[in-house]
Amino acid sequence: MENIQQGLVLLVAGMGIVFAFLAILVCFMNLMAKIIPRFNYVLPDEEPKKKPRPAIAASDDAAIALAIAIARSRC
Q1: Domain limits of the chain?
Q2: Which phi and psi (to 5°) does residue 56 adopt?
Q3: Chain segment 25-37, per-residue pLDDT in tens
Q4: Phi, psi at residue 58, to the nearest 5°?
Q5: Is residue 58 pLDDT above 70, yes or no?
C-alpha cells in the first residue's frame, strides 16, 4: 500500500511540474508574440523573391500544338 501511495505522489508531482512548465511556456510565448513585433524594424523580414517565368522555347511549340490537337480530338 505504501508503494501505491508513493507512486501516486510521484504521479501528481510529475504531472504538476509538467503542467506548470507548459503554462509558463504558453504565457512566455504569448508575451513574446506581443513584444517581438515592436522590434521588427531591427531585422525586417525579407520580401520573397519572385521567380521569373521561363520563356517558352520554339521547340515547345510543336508539343503545345500536339497537346491542343489531342484535347480537341477528344471532345
Answers
A1: 1-42
A2: -80, 125
A3: 999 999 999 998 8
A4: -65, -30
A5: no
